[in-house]
Amino acid sequence: MALIRKFFPLDKNYLLEEAQLSLQDTLLTLLIDQVKSEFEQRTNPLGLLDEFSLKIRTYNCQNLKPLYNFYQNMAAVYRFKYSDNQLEFVWDGSDHQEKYKAEWASTFNDWISEFCNQELFIQAVLDLTVFLPDNRHADLVENRMNNFMLRQFGVKLHKTKGLAAMKVA
User: Fold this and answer.
1) Rounded to two decimals, what is the model's pTM?
2) What digits encode the pLDDT tens for the residues 118-169?
3) What is each CA distance from 134 to 24, 94, 123, in whole angstroms?
4) pLDDT tens digit string along 41-77?
C-alpha cells in the first residue's frame, strides 16, 4: 500500500484515496497516450514522420514517477472539492472501492480531456515524459503543472499547509 498523505484538515476519506492510488499508473499511462494523440492532431495532422514526431509517437513510458506529484495533487483536489469523508450507502451492491474507482477514473478522464485543450498542459506533460533527460530534475515543469492546477481549480498546494482555496482573477 502506498503512503497516504493528508492534503487538508478533513482529508480523511482513506478508501477514496486508496482507490485513487491503485489507479495511478493506469490513469497516467492513459494521460500520456491522450497527450501524445492530441499533440499529433494539433501539430502534425498529416501524420508526416520527422525525427521530432517520431520521438513522440514511439515514446513508451518506462518511468511514470515524474507525473506522480501531479496525479496525487489532482486526486487531492478531487477529494477537497468533490468528496465527503463520510461513507454513503451504495445501493447497487458494489463496494465503495469499486464505486470510488469508477467515479475517479471518469472524472480524471474528463479533466484530462479538458486540460488537453490547452497547449501549455500538453507541453508540460511532454516535458515530464518524452523530453525529460535522465539527469534533469523536473522541478520547473512540476511548478508549471501546479500553476496550471491553480488556474483550473482555484486551489493552491502549499508545502506546509496543504491545499487551500484561492481566488483566481
Assistant:
1) 0.80
2) 998 999 899 888 887 665 666 666 777 777 777 777 776 666 556 666 554 4
3) 22, 43, 18
4) 998 888 888 888 888 888 988 889 889 988 988 998 8
With cell 469523508, the residue in question is 85
Query: Is residue 165 within 8 Å of residue 158, measured between CB atoms?
Result: no
Q: What is the C-alpha separation between 82 and 127, in angstroms, rounded?
A: 29
In the chain, the amino acid numbered 21 is: L
Beta carbons of 79 and 10 less than 8 angstroms apart: no
Residues 11-17, mean pLDDT to the nearest whole number: 78
Cβ-Cβ contacts under 8 Å for 29 (sequence gap 6 or more): 61, 64
